[in-house]
Design a protein that fits this description.
The chain is mostly beta strands. It has three domains: 58 residues, no CATH class; 123 residues, Macroglobulin (MG2) domain (Immunoglobulin-like), CATH 2.60.40; 455 residues, Methylamine Dehydrogenase, Chain H. Strands 1, 39, 42, 43, 45 and 46 form a six-stranded mixed beta sheet that branches. The chain has a five-stranded antiparallel beta sheet with strand order 27-28-31-32-33, with no helix packed on it. A four-stranded antiparallel beta sheet has the order 2-37-35-34, with no helix packed on it. Strand 15 and strand 16 form a beta hairpin. Helix 1 runs antiparallel to helix 5. The two termini are 24 Å apart.
């Protein structure tokens, strides 16, 4: 009997073990297949991205400029203001490139249109024939070029280089007109040129026809100094004349004598003419020519005036950037650059030493997005004023000197800043300097950086600000003890003159603006109810010198998606571009962890990154039911034989 009893127990234990083994198999098989190995998968970056991806415009040329800067001074009214809603509020350098050969220089004026930055070389300051480059506005890559130095305009929806219309995608010349006016009104379908001459121009693919012409034999101004709302304005600085013509008929609407020397009509806006002069800043009524107000100051700088946000922004030579009310001329704020770098080399006149800004040729400003972007030339050097055998200057680890005779270096900018100001208050938002040492030498409001090369004509388009370096004179240059700064190192084939080996021609184009970012997440495994650290990186992939550097200070949102969804944390990248957060999953299963960001002033919103995390350690519903069944069957198999055995042995059992 006893042996039978033991045999029964052995059978029961064996059967229970079998059921338990089946339970374990069911538990494992109830999980997703990927959970069995506890592996994770990272989302990889595709080699080619679709047009909707934030990286698309940095990998493919996009031939659209949403807010084009089609003229040297934005548009036909001369106003250096772009209505684009946002502009760079940080000094993030999207791209910069050197395009010139040794002994070559850019002309300072350029345009941004059709997704292109259109620049030309200055044959008067170069040892090579003229060239024009069409450069991608987002990447700085050359899309096409033509072997001519052409004045570019985007007018009537057509890209013009001189009198020739070009295909903006290929650079192919489409047609050339014998006459191409410089000012065009699409509503009137008319255009105007010096004379003044009015043209009917209904079809821009054909030459315009003369509608009217003033034959004044020099008795009236002939240049087109400004245009606005059906009126042509013309001034003659020698005869002090200012005339307003009806743009449709050529009839004289009014004329007057100018109240000061060298009055120039810079901006036509708000029914007013805003004018620089040798004796301050003037505002005239467009309809009558009457003087409305006058800011009494020294000479003001022509061609760099903006009217925006109810204010007027202009330069006073050698002193300030001014902001005055556009209606009555009262002063809103003035900005004077800070000087903290000693004289570079050579002596200068007393007025140069005392002035805050030097040389009007280097004054440039543009306004957009509530910001004023200004270049303030602060100091220059003349070799004729150098003492004999002047050794030069050692500054911040680099030795600089002006080229000795027989090379005739006329002048170069010794100190310069490119500054972003709040348009309403004049407060410094950011500053940058270049060239000491050469490159993106970034300063702050409390510690400004200065430079030699000039950031000329800051044009604004599509949330970016551009600048072209150009020399002050035909022999601008300095020597340096850093050979990598010598253009001869870059272009050894261009050595036409023995003594030019140390002349430094600026040749960079800069673009400031928010850059593209790539987010990534690291692999992770998780167990139900236990915390796991989710880690990731943000990398700046701007096409310029910031490429593959950490994206610092980028807000990142982490979330999970699976059998349930929710937020993990909102974090900010550190100085290494890294971010992390702790997540405690409450249930098993497969989850997608997603990292996303809205971007910042320095970075565009990137594409979201995701990774798959499998959470193990929890039982599924099927596995739980199987476990209960195993226990129930095991108990039944044990209790039923025991009861029967006891009954056979005559033991009295309770019902």
């Amino acid at each position: 009997m006893k042996n039978n009893f033991m045999n029964d127990y052995a059978k029961m234990i064996t059967i229970s073990a079998a059921f338990l083994l089946a339970f374990l198999v069911l538990s494992v098989n109830a999980l997703p297949p990927s959970a069995q190995a506890s592996t994770t998968v990272n989302l990889t970056m595709p080699k080619q991205v679709a047009p909707g991806n934030p990286l698309y415009k940095y990998e493919n040329h996009v031939n659209v400029t949403q807010y084009p800067w089609g003229f040297t001074n934005y548009n036909t009214t001369g106003n250096r203001f772009s209505p684009m809603p946002t502009a760079p509020s940080t000094s993030h350098l999207l791209w910069d490139n050197i395009y010139l050969r040794y002994g070559e220089a850019f002309i300072e004026s350029y345009i941004v249109a059709n997704g292109l930055v259109m620049v030309e070389t200055d044959t008067s300051k170069s040892i090579y024939p003229g060239l024009s480059y069409a450069i991608d506005e987002n990447t700085g890559k050359i899309i096409w070029s033509v072997p001519s130095s052409l004045a570019w305009q985007e007018m009537g929806g057509i890209l013009w280089g001189g009198n020739t219309a070009f295909n903006p995608n290929t650079g192919q010349a489409l047609y050339t007109l014998t006459t191409r006016p410089t000012v065009y009104d699409a509503k009137l379908k008319m255009a105007w040129a010096s004379g003044p001459i009015g043209y009917n121009w209904p079809d821009l693919t054909k030459a315009p026809t003369v509608a009217w012409q003033i034959n004044n034999n020099g008795s009236l101004p002939s240049a087109i100094s400004g245009y606005d709302n059906g009126r042509i304005f013309s001034v003659n600085t020698l005869t002090f004349q200012m005339v307003c013509y009806n743009a449709t008929t050529g009839a004289i609407l009014w004329q007057r004598l100018m109240p000061a020397s060298n009055v120039a009509i810079d901006v036509c806006a708000l029914g007013r003419l805003y004018c620089t002069s040798y004796a301050g800043f003037f505002c005239f009524d467009e309809a009558t020519g009457n003087l409305l107000w006058h800011v009494q100051c020294h000479e003001t700088s022509a061609s760099h005036v903006a009217v925006a946000y109810g204010n007027v922004y202009f330069y006073e030579v050698r002193t300030y950037v001014w902001c005055v009310n556009a209606i009555d001329g009262h002063v809103v704020w003035k900005y004077a650059p800070i000087r903290n770098v000693p004289a570079l080399v050579g002596g200068m006149s007393a007025i140069d030493y005392n002035a805050t800004m030097i040389h009007e040729a280097f004054y440039s400003l543009g306004v957009a997005g509530g910001m004023v972007y200004a270049t303030t030339m602060q100091e220059t050097t003349y070799p004729t004023l150098l003492p004999a055998n002047f050794p030069g200057l050692y500054y911040q680890g680099t030795y600089y000197w002006v080229n000795p005779e027989p090379v005739n270096v006329i002048a170069h900018p010794g100190q310069n800043e490119f500054v972003c100001l709040n348009a309403n208050t004049g407060a410094v938002v950011w500053r940058v300097g270049y060239g000491w040492p050469y490159g993106a030498n970034v300063g702050t409001a409390s510690q400004p950086a200065y430079a030699g090369p000039n950031m000329c004509f800051p044009d604004l388009a599509d949330g970016m600000v551009f600048g072209v370096e150009e020399p002050y004179s035909s022999h601008t240059g300095i020597g340096t003890s850093r050979p990598e700064l010598d253009p001869l190192v870059r272009y050894p084939e261009s050595i036409p003159k023995l003594y030019l080996s140390n002349i430094w021609y600026p040749g960079r184009i800069y673009c400031f603006g928010p850059g593209p970012v790539v987010l990534s997440l690291s692999n992770a495994t998780a167990i139900t109810g236990q915390p796991v650290t989710i880690r990731g990186n943000a990398v700046d992939v701007s096409p310029g010198p910031m490429q593959n550097t950490p994206a610092v200070g980028l807000p990142v949102s982490l979330s999970f998606i699976g059998s349930s969804s929710g937020s993990i944390a909102n974090v900010v990248t550190n100085s290494q571009g890294q971010f992390s957060a702790t997540w405690t999953p409450s249930a098993g299963g497969t989850y997608s962890i997603v990292a996303s960001s809205q971007g910042t002033a320095s970075y565009n919103a990137p594409a979201a990154a995701s990774t798959v995390v499998v959470v193990s350690g929890g039982l599924s519903t099927i596995a739980s039911i199987a476990g209960i069944a195993v226990v129930a069957v095991s108990v039944s198999m044990i209790s039923v034989p025991l009861r029967k055995r006891k009954e056979e042995e005559g033991e009295q059992l309770e019902p």
